[in-house]
Amino acid sequence: MYDFVPMRQPVEDETARATAHGFPVQTVRVVVAGGGGVAEGESVSVGTAQDNRIVLADRAVSRYHLEISATTRGIRVRDLGSTNGTFLGTTRIESAEVRPGTSLRVGDAVLSVEAGAGTQVDLHQRSTFHGLVGSSAPMRRLFSQIDRAAQSSVSVLLSGESGTGKERVADALHRASPRASQALEVVDCGALVPTLVASELFGHERGAFTGAARQHVGAFERAHQGTLLLDEIGELPMSIQPALLGAIERKRIRRLGGNVDIPVDVRIVSATHRDLRAEVNAGRFRLDLFYRIASVVLVVPPLRERMADLPALVEHFARAAGYAGQLDELVSEAALTTLGQGRFDGNLRELRNVVEALLAMGELPAMATAEGATDVSEALLTMPYKQARAALLRDFEERYIGALLERAGGNIAAAARVAGMDRSYLSELVSRIRRQS
Question: What is the pTM of this model?
């Protein structure tokens, strides 16, 4: 993977606030009325599950009921798909920004929300890390977290929006670990036909099922002594989750149709754009499996939270696409300012597409900003037919499939029915789009 040294300094951001003691971040303090508990942190989760910061013994409270976080704008409250809701006064809320001193009700408990005293976090000294690029505070903090997590074999869950580069983070985690000389195997749980997930994970013997013409070695075996990335693990069918839990706990697998247990030494890294706590509440993800895969949770920041990295990222994608000239010759300061006003709902994936269009045309396509919608038609009209058609089709497919899966809750079969598509073709399309990202 390309290790990048920026030619242009990124714009100044909050990283300048870093001190010898670390980088200051805001915290929130949550107090349960009547002496029911208190917790302070950047975020405080509340529920009945034992890994919450505040654990409530209340049958009206969900396992993961809500999360209260400190943000640059204040305090954010987010209900995690609870059964009985989170209430501000008599109003049931799903997500809201509240002021310090606000009282919330969950079940029979009343929570008082206050601004915390703040804390310090470590930032990595470098602006690149095993192929990752970023001098902003969120990325240098992530580099530091990856560096620490890489030294052990605990399971890591990567959480973040689509297009933020979670697979690249998994690769950096693997490359920074003592397992770097061994394989990094990737299984896209969202792109596989449900009936073939077990075979891809555990392998199968010849004749194990119709169509099994030869023995197949599964991802667990291929990743022996290395790392196994379970991408989009939130899409893993419930029917497979007990077998996966068993393999992780026993460190042994058995191929489909086999009768011999095979020992495996694998470091599990999982990635998802979903909040698995909400999936646990909804009964779509096993709580015990969540515990197993989320020993450490790393949050990959969206592009809008690391816009200071924009110049470096533009050059990174340009270099990856074969550009060898000076960045100043490719994109002006004014054009970078225009890029900085984009919404980038697709995060790094969308930025990469913009840079590729810039290389093809010599100018930026029209951008989606807070005030306007994406319009690349004028740029497309000046491109060669095949190139324009391919660019338009790729953009359409990424947007359409992303919206389709969102409507279908990430379920491939349901999405295929909604779109009137063949499920296997949709699975192949999803897999190709994710490989391109």
Answer: 0.80
